[in-house]
Amino acid sequence: MGWEAGPGSGDGPSADLTARWTAALSDGHRDHVVPMSAAEARMLLTRLARGFENAAEPDEPTEQVAELGAELARSHFVGDEVLGRSLAVLSAYFTEAGTIAAERLAQLLGAFANGYIRAFRAWLLAEQESVRTAEIAARRAVTEQLRASDARLRAVFTQAGIGTGLSDMSGRILEVNTAFASMLGYEPEQMCELAVTDLTHPEDDPDMWELYLALLRGEHDNVQVEKAYRHRDGRTVWTNLNVSLIRDERGRPQYTLVLVEDISEWHALRERLHYRAHHDQLTGLPNRSKFIDALTAAFADPAAAFGLCYIDLDHFKLVNDTFGHAVGDELLIQAAARLRARARPGQLVARMGGDEFVILVPQANASDRTAEVAQTMLDAFAKPFDIQGHHLNVSASVGVMAGRADHRSADELLQAADTTMYWAKAAGRGRYAIFDADRGRREHTRAELSAAMPAALARDELFLDYQPIVALGDQRMVAVEALVRWRHPELGVLTPAQFVDLAEDNGHIGALGAQVLERACHDSRDWHTRFHEHTPIVSVNVSAAEVADPTWLDRVQRVIAETGIAPDRLQLELTERAFMHTTGRPLQALRTLAEAGIHIAIDDFGTGYSNLAYLGQLPLDVVKLAGPFIRCIRTPESPGATDLLVLESIIELTHALGYTLTAECVETRYQADRLAALGCDTAQGWLFHRPMPAHRVTDLLAATRVTMGE
Ligand code: C2E
Ligand code: MG
Ligand code: MG
Fold it and tell me: I need a surface site. Which of 317, 450, 563, 590 has the fewest CB within 10 A?
């Protein structure tokens, strides 16, 4: 009976799949014993297709899919190539659709095939059993029926699309059908001259022959294995093999019945899918998933010693952006080839994705062994790459991990290796860095803080303290420095040292700086409403990264306009280091603000390496002397003559340039007096005031007004 694929195969994602499947099985593949209409058949295939699709989720058990295969066989789809064609349709469809990951697809197809074969075997044995029963009955009475049954078994045996064979307990092959014989390139009679043991294959699992012997001893009734055979033309034929023990009436083992399904195509497909699932398409290296499997296995074995190199090409994005993706891809291919060429046997080189590679180094618990490997890999980049006429000098940075180093999982270990690689980048690229557990612990909380930052900005967890800056002459509060703090819901109040540079690294510094500036300007306006010309200048710290943002200038101007504070009531502080990184357009932005009357201060002066002459070229008003300078004049005994001399000349030079000098971290009266004697203008420090909330500044201002009799 033939039936065509047609409309009505149902809606939904599997309609197309059902149509293809129906077409593939549309002719002569179904046993006609149990009739089924074309519509019923389509309904069945639709249901099976849906079931298959629904199993796409990885890590789910595959029994349901095996059951789908079984259902196909139980519905008497037992003809030649039913399984093969079904697998081909399913595999082609889902590979195209991309809805099931390659590895999962291979798993599902395997489960489907197993389920099908299991059910098919059951069906065939039932047939065989009915023949045997009939035989016994026939011996007593109806010879006619015996002949009919026998004919039926013969028909099943010879016509089945699946190879079948019968052998005796000594392993002699008694009978095979054409399907089995031709699968291996023989005539049935030729195969009957062989013994089962003649069909061994180098790929045979040693356990398989153990199982066969156990079956012959009657310990099992059925064995199912995947087995390779050698075809007469030399190629390998992969099969799904079912061996069943047939017993006589008294239960003694009599024959073995084998059912053999040629799964070579499916096997090759599975190998291909497996390869694809574990290798990177571009470089051919093992991919992330294969690497993680290997690392997880190494990790799970407490006796295994291993090291890890995490490699990242330096400035790869620049290559891509400058020369295009074709050159970028070629660079990755060549880099992969160089890494692979330098790896020793046993070392696994894989591509993690992008321009990141990893090497698993076995037997390397000591860091110097792994560092040696890292150096070998760095040497691989010594020569330039020749790509499409470009001579590219590319270096790499490597993070080196030796052993587990207290990490709880392979994932954590990999994360640490990645972090270590960034240390190598931070140290100047083109080198390796070795993991350091203390630094790792510090950076771990950094990663957590970094992740919590957007929420903190959105939930107003940042607030400001103000530290007064006083005139050294009369100790009047002339300015306040705004100092940001983070009230973290679990960690309590965090200081800027714990999160400001993090915000600079993770790109949140713009939003952070904007909040600080707005808050400071608002507070300043409130003070101005109450204290008018006695309002202190508000001094706000700014990072180089903020100034480098092209939108920063506009934002500052907008905040000034919106809050309506006088520009000369605002001061911006950039550290000496920040100034060293500020040139070109960002420096111009500072000039624009300075021209508008905003004070610009160089913060922590004396900690960087800037040339004093360079000070004259900056749009400056104030130089803030860094704490370490002030600390050297703690007691009358301590100051070395040179230190004081340096201090004196800085103050002189600063004044010569027309700048005001503020001393930071003034903690003792002695320091204040010496600074005043040296001509320093203003000071800030615990001697005068600790940082305090805005309302305390208000109180201080109000108290001053009272003492001044206003
Ligand atoms: P800075 O601008 O040099 O700020 C002065 C720091 O010295 C403050 O630390 C202050 O509390 C501390 N200090 C003040 N007087 C004394 C003293 O007498 N002795 C000692 N030992 N320390 C004193 P804080 O608040 O932890 O700020 C640290 C740094 O964080 C600041 O250094 C500044 O560079 C940065 N920062 C603070 N707020 C912001 C901000 O809103 N944006 C940016 N970009 N950076 C900020
Ligand atoms: Mg400051
Ligand atoms: Mg400072």
Answer: 317
